[in-house]
Amino acid sequence: MPAPSSSTVKSPLPSDYRAAARTSSRRNTLNRVIRRETIIGWLFVLPALLIYAVFVLFPFLLTILYSFFRWNGVGPATWIGLNNYLTVFQVPDLLGTIFNAFWLVVWFSFIPVGLGLVVASVIHRVATGRLGALARTVLFLPQVIPLVAAGIIWGWLLGLPGLVNQILSAVGLGAITRAWLGDFDWALPAVGLIGIWVLLGFCTVLLLTGMTKVNPALYESARIDGAGWFREFVGITVPLLRYEIGVCLTVTVIAALAAFDIVYVSTAGGPGNSTAVPGIQIYILAFTQREVGLASALAVLLMLLVVLIIIPIQRLGRAESTS
Amino acid sequence: MKVARSELWAGRALLVALMAFTLLPFISIFATALHPSGSVPSGLEWPADPQWGNFVEAFNVANMTTLLISSTRIVLSVVPVALVISTMAGFAIGALRIRGANVLLLLFVFGLTLPFPGIIIPIYFLERAMGIYNTRFAIALPLIGLYMPFAVFWMRSHFVNTPTEISEAARVDGATTWHLFWRIHVPLARAPMASLGILMSVWTWNQFLLALVLVEDPTQRTMAGALGAFQGHYATNVPLLCAGTILILLPTLILFVLFQRQIIAALLEGSIKG
């Protein structure tokens, strides 16, 4: 269908009226064009919006709704108000998942971002050539494989006969070898190590991209002044990369709080509840224990937690990148 | 460059150490996969007699042929549809700048902050009610929806940067909106669309939670979903498990090596703009 344009509107009026008529008719057509544009534009958005609404927004609202009911998923549901939330806060195993989620944020987010900053600045300073390019590619590799595969690989590496214990024995630390993922104290850090392995490359490459945007004159003058790696790192890299650091933290924090695949495959939340994170607990509650309402309450708290952690990070990144 | 020699070597040593940290796990499972099926080798030990047949055995017991077909089918039913509708939406929000564009954008961006496990429960019950649970649409439809926040955002940031003169020139020539989109803007958006398509293919292939919850038969799941089930069956047979894992992550690794630049660029830009 052709869009009406002012050239298609023929005016039968004499020439002296024409100018005035043209302006008003042009305004009318312009209005009409804008309205049509809007309708057509919305038609373009509609398919995406529809499927997004049905499979994301509607489930989001349903999760909130479910969280006020006691429901086994099959029979009738009973309205119990905020009781599911009270249960989450009263049962140590459930509240524990939220604490575990915080711990996982340290391992999946703070450490990869911090280490990524160091690695990126090292690549930027001493390995601009082939070694740097190779390091980028290699470190990025774990990011593209399924997280399930990462979980299985490390499940084997961290097991009793695995590579980690083999290396520890080789360097004389045979006394501390153990089944890392089966140890109450060490299972969570071990899962965290998998997260570092997966996310380090992503953070490094993202931060490195940010560093290439920093005016190279800054680095050069710092080096002429004889600034070492550390001063350059604290003085230039960290403050100028605040925005990229914010982005990196945001992405990895969401990855940490939404963690499911790695934990499910490597420990399934065990031993005991020592690595049970909200994602795992929601799955177990809803699909094996049939506590749909309780699982939904935990899901709502998880989503709230994400927002609560993300907003300050976003603000930090935004505010300081504009100043 | 004024970088001290000692620092140069310290930096290089760090990079080499981290590369070893990244690669050793792959080498370890590869070496393990070549040990006799059912044995318990130690972490990194090249077998005396490499059992290449383990890969064949893993291929057969994991029903790899069926699995490849079902995963490819899921990818093919998700990616083209998601690509077209997100490009259309990104075009309307970014290039047409329709009324309400900002609200729409915010609505889509909101989805970026939702953790997957947070909405999986209603998706399960919704699918049961709609009758698509455990069917070939069970994984595909929600995945398209779940990709929309990133995909629309990604395409919008391309379109918002295309010069308005292009659209205006086409308008003067009397192009319809559809024409403008399909003949002029889509050809110009080929690069970001390609990156997005590759990313969504990898994500679909690697999708685990949806596959686990929404499809009962492991051979009808995505690759990653099937790997989870495979682990359940062969947890004690480590060489076979490692061989199966390698087979399942091989396609994504090949894809990464081929499209390395696009994948890295897409992941980074996508998150920076987010």
Question: SSE layout and pairings?
Answer:
The complex is a heterodimer of chains A (323) and B (274).
Chain A: H1 15-66, E1 69-70, E2 78-79, H2 83-90, H3 92-126, H4 130-140, H5 147-157, H6 163-170, H7 187-213, H8 216-224, H9 229-240, H10 242-257, H11 261-266, H12 278-287, H13 292-322
Antiparallel strand pairs in A: 1-2
Helix pairs in contact in A: 1-13, 2-3, 2-13, 3-7, 3-9, 3-10, 4-7, 7-10, 10-13, 12-13
Chain B: H1 5-33, H2 53-61, H3 64-96, H4 101-112, H5 116-130, H6 137-159, H7 164-172, H8 177-188, H9 190-206, H10 209-214, H11 223-234, H12 238-258, H13 260-273
Helix pairs in contact in B: 1-12, 2-12, 3-6, 3-9, 4-6, 6-9, 7-8, 9-13, 11-12
> Strand-residue fraction of chain A?
under 5%
- In total, how many beta strands of chain A? 2
CATH H-level homologous superfamily name of the largest domain in chain A: MetI-like
> Helical percent range of chain A?
over 70%
Topology order of chain A in helix (H) and strand (E) letters: HEEHHHHHHHHHHHH
- The CATH class of the largest domain in chain A is identified as Mainly Alpha
What is the total number of structural domains of chain B?
2
Tell me the number of structural domains of chain A. Answer: 2
Backbone structural class of chain B: mainly alpha
The neighbouring-strand order within the major sheet of chain A is 1-2
- Tell the overall outline of chain B: globular
Provide the CATH superfamily of the largest domain in chain B: MetI-like
The strand count of chain B comes to 0
What integer value in Å does the Rg of chain A equal? 28 Å
Summarize the structure.
Chain A is mainly alpha-helical.
Protein described:
The complex is a heterodimer of chains A (323) and B (274). Chain A has helices spanning 15-66, 83-90, 92-126, 130-140, 147-157, 163-170, 187-213, 216-224, 229-240, 242-257, 261-266, 278-287, 292-322, and strands at residues 69-70, 78-79. By secondary structure, chain A is mainly α. Chain A has two domains: 6-52; 86-322, MetI-like fold (Orthogonal Bundle). Chain A has a two-stranded antiparallel ribbon with strand order 1-2. In chain A, a hairpin with a 7-residue loop joins strand 1 and strand 2. Chain A starts with 14 loop residues before the first helix and ends with a helix. Residues 1-14 of chain A have low confidence and may be disordered. By secondary structure, chain B is mainly α. Chain B has two domains: 5-57, no CATH class; 63-273, MetI-like fold (Orthogonal Bundle), CATH 1.10.3720.10. Chain B is built from 13 helices and no strands. Chain B has helices at 5-33, 53-61, 64-96, 101-112, 116-130, 137-159, 164-172, 177-188, 190-206, 209-214, 223-234, 238-258, 260-273. In chain B, helix 1 crosses helix 12 and helix 6 (137-159) packs antiparallel against helix 9.
